[in-house]
Amino acid sequence: MPKTHPARRTTIMDVARAAGVSRQTVSNAINSPERVRPDTRSKVLQVVDKLHYRPSSAARTLRHQRAGAVGTELNAVADQPSDIALPFLTALTLSAARHACHMVPFASKEAFPLLSGYQDMVRRRLVDAFILTDTHPGDPRPAWLEEAGIPYASFGRIYDDPTRGYWADVDGAAGTQMAVAHVAASGYQTVGFLGWPAGSAVGDLRREGWAQGVKEHDVAAGPEGSAPQSLPEALRAAEDLLDGLAVGDAVVCASDVLALGVHQAALARGWTPGADIGITGFDGSPVAHLHSITTLTQPLDDIAEHLFTILDHQLAGSPEPVQAALLVPTLDVNTSTKITPKKGTS
Amino acid sequence: MPKTHPARRTTIMDVARAAGVSRQTVSNAINSPERVRPDTRSKVLQVVDKLHYRPSSAARTLRHQRAGAVGTELNAVADQPSDIALPFLTALTLSAARHACHMVPFASKEAFPLLSGYQDMVRRRLVDAFILTDTHPGDPRPAWLEEAGIPYASFGRIYDDPTRGYWADVDGAAGTQMAVAHVAASGYQTVGFLGWPAGSAVGDLRREGWAQGVKEHDVAAGPEGSAPQSLPEALRAAEDLLDGLAVGDAVVCASDVLALGVHQAALARGWTPGADIGITGFDGSPVAHLHSITTLTQPLDDIAEHLFTILDHQLAGSPEPVQAALLVPTLDVNTSTKITPKKGTS
Q: So which residues are the signal peptide here (chains A, B) (predicted)?
């Protein structure tokens, strides 16, 4: 054991005295940095470290009867986890700190998403609330959580009752509409669409935005195709789609993997993405960045912040729910929609 | 508030009485399922839910003076987070539950990895220990954590003092050696190597395995090239490398992104990956799966389990450290090393 540790446990008053500030200032310096001047915080934290002061989060939790934590399930079953799962968890982790709590991930090899993992977290009292992802029609979690009186907020609509105000989602239709506006303004002629097979709620909305976009902008509607989220199938669907298009046209896609299929199919027939054919993806995933594909990036920081606002309201027992939020993605323009690539620049 | 909630807070004794078991059995059913028969556990958990019993984790924590949690930093700064960061966090989350604790991720937009985030987690007493990732020569974290007496274990060698037993890592040299053995056995003739620029500890070890492999197996050593972890640069380096190779040869790569560069460069000259040129990557990332590239998958579950064994020893105050572990990756064979692809199979 290091010799510098004091024999008696250091208290918050020891720190306050040594730093020449109030007990509340010490507490704020540790837990609510935004309430303290930076130089004061720095002085207090130096004393905290010198005296080896460790506030007892357990005692604090017991006082408030709160775990101070929000649970979220990681998908341990999918072969290919969602490309945005990690950036979203990172956004949640940063938001949590601003809302004086922390995230506790959990996972199960059994099934995803099912209730047992949520029940275990509640029984062990590790969290006060949950953030849901991968919502879908027939999802049992919202009803179970409401029945049990456990606060939650959802990334993705609550499909069985979208009037519930407990969610934030990306506006898929607005996104693909923006993509059409962008390729129209860039000078592409006819705009086709590669989506997922009809019937997926997310995919259908993204298709709707494309259909609306070609009506509103000065471009012709090209052919439509669909494929599941797999590169070989996207590639096959893209080959058929490109047969109905010509150099100077564009394809708006419902995902980055579908856009990669169009990208590879274009290269296979000697068309340069961007110069010969416009291609847009959706999600802002590493796949799009790796292959320089223009994409619609989800506003994950804003979504995380809105979900914590929803949770704060529920935890405070506020009777008026916060409004659900439909947030517009950002268009990240890359080589795949540059019709006249400049030579000689890196 | 739901009417079914009892007015008095339900205690563990209420549950034990209603389920006809001992208090310890109730505690085990919730916290240590492996110690209880499945039918007993199921009976106890039914009573737990019926009586709305919530064990107080805060009281338990205060008794043990432990947070029961392990912190790990998420990289909120990198444009392209590591492909295996999410699968590794999922593996840690599953291991944590087996070791009666949970993970608490933290992140900072300021810098990665620096000490301030770790100091904040310790000051707020949210965790008892840390799991480090992205270790590198000159990493300040191991020395600071040891000085402060905080248990930790590292995914990746502690480069400044690898004799420390606080780490588990993948055996990169053994991996690329396996890749050479595999392409040699598959019938490829000459085996080249595409690595990262010399000087990165991880990359140098992966190159060493290739060099050793071509000595031990019945193949000729082909040319070597290098590129940073970026697709355009990997593509350029791969074009040069392929100029020195012929149909029937193979390239072992230090990463999946580098392997994708070889894959794209091969397609550009009309060579079919697998049938005309063998290609292996490293890391088992989504990029490799997406493009059907043979890869070396890191044994993340075993690494997570070893790290928790290290932490358990430190938390128990055991004087003998657990041995560091160098774990061999798994070769996942895919189309890119199938020299005679079978026709007509899916």
A: none
User: What is d(CA A280, CA A244) in angstroms, rounded to the nearest whole number?
Assistant: 18
Task: Give residue for tokens 């990240």.
Answer: A332
Would you call A90 and B104 a contact, using CB atoms and an 8 Å cutoff? Answer: no
Q: The tokens of A40 are what?
A: 């004061």
Respond yes or no on whether the N-terminal peptide bond of residue A113 is cis (omega within 30° of 0).
yes
Residue B7: count other Cβ atoms within 10 Å of its Cβ. Answer: 4
Tokens of B260: 């994708």
Chain B neighbours among A 52-111 (CB < 8 Å)? 53-59, 61-62, 65, 67, 69, 74-76, 79-81, 83, 85-87, 89-90, 93-94, 97, 102-109
Half-sphere exposure of A81 (CA within 13 A, CB side): 24
Residues belonging to chain A:
346
pLDDT for res A10? 78
Rounded Cα gap, residues A150 and A314, in angstroms: 9
Contact A2 B147 (CB under 8 A): yes
- pLDDT, one tens digit for every residue, chain A (346 residues): 333 444 567 788 888 899 999 888 887 787 777 778 888 888 888 888 788 776 655 444 444 567 889 999 998 887 666 778 999 999 999 999 989 899 999 998 877 778 888 988 888 889 999 999 988 888 999 999 988 889 999 999 888 887 888 999 999 999 999 999 999 999 999 999 999 999 888 899 999 999 999 999 989 999 999 999 889 999 999 999 999 999 999 999 999 999 999 999 999 899 999 999 999 999 998 889 989 999 999 999 999 999 999 999 988 887 777 888 999 999 999 999 998 754 443 3
Query: CA A343 to CA B16: how far, in whole Å?
Result: 77
What are the structure tokens assigned to B329, written together?
A: 């990756």
**Sign of torsion, CA B218 B224 B227 B232?**
negative
CB atoms within 10 A of CB B1: 6
Residue A67: φ, ψ to 5°: -80, -20
Q: Do A290 and B231 touch (CB under 8 A)?
A: yes
3-state secondary structure B14-62: HHHHHHCCCHHHHHHHHHCHHHCCHHHHHHHHHHHHHCCCCCCHHHHHH
The residues, ordered by sequence, that sit 6+ positions from A26 with a Cβ below 8 Å of its Cβ are A12, A15, A16, A19, A44, A48
Taking CB atoms and an 8 Å limit, are B79 and A289 in contact across chains? yes
Token pair of A105 as six digits: 């991930």
Q: Three-state DSSP class for B214?
A: helix
Start-to-end CA distance of chain B, whole Å, equals 56
Q: Tell me, what's the pLDDT at A320?
A: 75
Nearest CA to A139 among A270, A218, B330, A130?
A130
* Min distance B58 CA to chain A CA atoms (Å): 5
Domains along the sequence of chain B with CATH: 12-55 (1.10.260.40), 69-170+300-328 (3.40.50.2300), 172-297+332-337 (3.40.50.2300)
Q: Could you give the CA distance from residue A296 to residue A284 in angstroms, rounded to a whole number?
A: 6
